[in-house]
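quick one
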Amino acid sequence: MIEMENLLKRIENKELTVGVIGLGYVGLPLAVEFGNAGIRTIGIDVNQSRVDQLNQGDNYIQDVDDSELKKLVDAGTFTATTDFSSIKHIDAVCIAVPTPLSKTKDPDITYILDVNRELTKYVHKDLIIILESTTYPGTTRELIQPALEESGLKVGTDVYLLFSPERVDPGNPVFHTTNTPKVIGGVTENCLKLGMAVYSHVMDKLVPVSSPEAAELTKLLENTFRSINIGLANEMAIMCAKLGVNVWEVIDAAATKPFGFMKFTPGPGLGGHCIPIDPHYLSWKMRTLDYRARFIELASEVNSAMPEYVVELVADGLNGASKSINGSKILLLGMAYKPDIDDVRESPALDVYALLEAKGAEVKFHDPYVSEIKFDSRMESTVELDHKSLDQYDCVVITTNHSEYDIKAIVENAKLVVDTRNATAGNKSDKIINLGAAR
Ligand code: SAJ
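structure w/ SAJ:
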């Protein structure tokens, strides 16, 4: 096994070029960390304008430090390209392309299939391939491995294939790419050894598992766990409102239990590019095995119904002032899917906006991080938030509680506030309808 030893030696001595395919919120931070470790890194992305931006040292990912990127580009340590043939000069390639859902909530693996086609073309002896995109269990072995072996090369002896889930939490002030434990599963022992040697340059802690399927399922369990518990919190909110009890008080009290409980909170629904999506990769896979993943489906049902629940709260509030949604002027505060970030992907605020509009309301939004949003065929821009003129709206809905919102001023000046995030906790006023709290 001299070959393995030589390969390991080269990796340990950083005599390798790492490639990252997909330069988004996962791929770009990862590429920058390899560059920071002094490893030549090539970023590959299909988006030419992104590639051009990066090669000018311009950063577009919130969690990446602008000066770090610039330094790597100026030193030639990191370069970006749209040319997949660069794989020929790459020793280890990490794949971090999107894995969304189709309209019918089925896995959409077109991005992985696109990469697969390039891998088949440019795979070469001793290439190490690590899939990071969240996907259904079996993708690595059933989709990627055959694409690599089409060339006649054998996984485990000529090329090395692994799965290692991304665990990037956008905007997290504590956990980032290098200090979040990294789960990794290889198709063979040698695959695992080599993949771990590559990641040991950038990850503080590696968590080897016995197979790529175990690694694929680890990620799905993590995010299914969140989706189901958020669904439980949302259903608790609905039940508490019917029982005349404040769900936020109940959750805070339950959270004092020092063991056996983990706090989740209700909200207007489930946003982001992970939690609403990932569990459906597992339930889809199970359907192909004739098994219904009931918890996943039920959680999705509860979570997806929350925007309508919020609209019912708005209707109740307006009704109290003898108004209807139809013809009312409504302002949504916060369109990003969670506080203090600029990402609106799958944001429930988008659903609330569309549902209110469909019922005849004139809807506006304010978001300090989101300047404009595309609704079907038109672009809507954020309005200025002038507390003194909030009474021009029949209802203000707090959909995402960005830290900078002055809740006291909002409550003081608005006619009616529907609070989906308990942002108004502590503000006593009969103008407030708080999701999960009796009026
Ligand atoms: N949400 C609730 N109630 C909660 C928690 C979240 O309604 O108790 C909503 C959020 O408002 C958001 C959605 O769920 O709309 C998702 O929120 P999230 O906190 O899970 O944030 P994400 O989507 O950024 O999830 C990421 C995930 N990271 C990865 O997949 C690598 C997730 O695994 C992390 O646990 C999560 O960040 C985190 O902890 O912040």
